[in-house]
Amino acid sequence: MVVLPVRFERSPRLHPMLSEEPHAAGTRVVVQGKRGPEIATVRGEPGQPQPQERYGAVLHAATPEELARWEALHASGEDLKWLLRARARQKNLPVKIVAVEFTLDESLVTVSYSAEERIELTGLIGEVRSQTRARVNFAAVGPREQAQMIGTLGACGRENCSSNHLQEFAPVSIRMARDQQLPLNPEKLSGPCGRLLCCLQFEHTQYLDLLRDLPRKNARVCHEGSGACGKVTKLHPLSGTVDVFTDQGLLTNVPSTELRRLTEAEIKALPDGGRASPRPGKPARTQG
What we know:
By secondary structure, the chain is an alpha+beta fold. About 25% of the residues lie in helices and about 30% in strands. The protein contains 8 helices and 14 strands. A 6-stranded mixed β-sheet has the order 13-9-10-11-12-14, with no helix packed on it. Strand 3 and strand 4 form a beta hairpin. It is elongated and about 85 Å long.
């Protein structure tokens, strides 16, 4: 027995499955999952099973007849999805039907839906049962799962990460955007799902490493070459530079390696206690 990583059509997540044969990557196989028999694709090399782990099972390589049946069931699911969407509009139900999926033996049909509040789905259940004899399962999905199943384009112009390669949804916070010095604009920081972009987490640890070598925002610093002192107004982690608003009213961009951070004693010794007030008007910008 070997363990094969397989992928279902509805998600990029890889699921380890026990198999008696080491099917090659790209092979479409019939697997016994939680919902029943389904078609999946092998997406990696075989490995060894681990003790205490629970696995699904790869039954066999899919035959042409099974693949044709799977395609027909997929088409039936699409037709049923649009029918349910039309019925939901007729009934004024605040629900979005995301996907309708049959198992290979057509014993179960799963209707994935999205709704902002709890709603009564009895009418829609009757519509499904009028179209198939399969057992009906309505499953609520969140905004990220919805984007994953539908598939959308991200702001980068490529397929969104959740439907392309993400194996799990890691927590994303607005602090990650602050650490990357991004403008806190909800429209630019949100993905198609309306939640914070998953890609904010990809480089966050690298930004944290770069920020350790930079002075904090609003810190008092002095340039070692010119001796000019001022307050840090903006950080540029990728270039290793910071913007400094000097006591002379100039905004200058300098490498952090050329700056000396003032000690608490030095700040207190300043005439204004380190609270230099900006001069009126927009400061001139110079390059250090």
